[in-house]
Amino acid sequence: MAMATPMASHRLWQWRAFHSSTTFHRIHSTQSPFLNISSSPVHVAARNLSLAVSTVPLLTSNPQTDEQQQTTNNNNKKDQFLLGKSEGELRKLAKELGQQTYRGKQLHDLLYKAKLKDLDEQNQLPLKFREDLKNAGWKVGRSSIHHAVSSADGTIKALLRLEDSRLVETVGIPAEVEGSSSRLTACVSSQIGCPLRCTFCATGKGGYSRNLKPHEIIEQVLVVQELFKHRVTNVVFMGMGEPMLNLKAVLEAHHSLNKDVKIGQRMITISTVGVPNTIKKLAAYKLQSTLAVMAFVEVLERHKVTTSIRQTRGLDANAACGQLRNEFQKLPLAA
Fold first, then answer.
1. Sequence-separated (6 or more) residues with CB below 8 Å from residue 205
2. Which of the two ends of the chain, N or C, has the fewest CB atoms closer than 10 A to its terminal CB?
3. Which are the contacts of 204, defined by CB distance < 8 A and separation ≥ 6?
């Protein structure tokens, strides 16, 4: 959700790394139609529980051999991803696989502190535990960096190649804050492409494929930390896609970034173009994070919404989020 080029006739409420003509507006007025969204008491909503439904295969006149059945089971096994799991969930998983629960704590530290990318890349965990995890369909959930570019001001944009070979962008934006330690912001994507296709946005021009999964959002922050060798202090959901159209995954990622990666809720911003009925739904979770609504200033002023505007630093419009993906993903994604 970033501009391809600045629009002379309108000022847009928008964030985009690099682009000096882009403006970012934050709602402060209590008269806003989005009342109580930008700052609410701390509460993290419990995740919805889903029921697992098992099915029994029908007998056939030509039953499979044990070897054939095992092959079928392996082919039908659904991948599960460790990234995004809490320490409690990983302790429980370790116990289910016959390990001491402290192995779950070790796995948690490897995922979020050591930035584990593959179960086989270290031997801190017992071989049997690692093999059992893989046999049960568990993967770490990390992707490779397909391409990366940097600007003179230190901003780095990375293009990640996901498991299905789709490409998604994330941006690391460093800043020195006077009177305090340096700040590093990760601008993360929530979708591969964007179905809204706003005329001012570069992302939609490359087409839309699918929503990102929670681990695919979380890993973007870890990638930024690895590139800068510095802890990410702030996260903004202002990359590719509309977060409100992938709210379940965004909230799960938000929870993990707060509890596992240890980024405060007040340091996380979720942006939207204002998808109907979703802002009220987000408000129900009573997050302390900021909601940034991207809209024409004239529209906000019509609703008597007080906004603050600041210029983001940067180089040129070609650095807008979505442009790098469009360059490397030559064929537009399916609508």
1. 4, 197, 322, 326
2. C
3. 193, 194, 195, 196, 197, 198, 322
Average predicted confidence (pLDDT) for the chain: 75
Other C-beta atoms closer than 10 Å to the C-beta of 296 total 15
User: For residue 98, how far is the Cα from the chain centroid?
Assistant: 32
pLDDT classification of 91: cutoffs 50, 70, 90 = very high
47 has pLDDT over 60: no
- Return d(Cα 20, Cα 43) in angstroms, integer: 36
Cβ atoms of residues 313 and 151 within 8 Å: no
| Cβ atoms of residues 306 and 27 within 8 Å | yes
Q: Are 12 and 22 in contact (CB under 8 A)?
A: yes
DSSP characters over 9-60: T--BB---SS-TT-EEEEE--TTSTTTTSSS-----PPPPP-------PPP-
What b/e readout covers 112-147, taking b as 16+ CB neighbours within 10 angstroms?
A: beeebbebeeeeebeeebbebbeeeebbbbbbeebe
Give the catalytic positions in this structure: 169, 321
Rounded Cα–Cα distance for residues 24 and 187 (Å): 14
What does the block give as tokens for 223?
Answer: 């990638």
Q: Which two tokens stand for residue 109?
A: 């530290």
143, amino acid identity: S
CB atoms within 10 A of CB 201: 24
Residue type (1 letter), 254? H
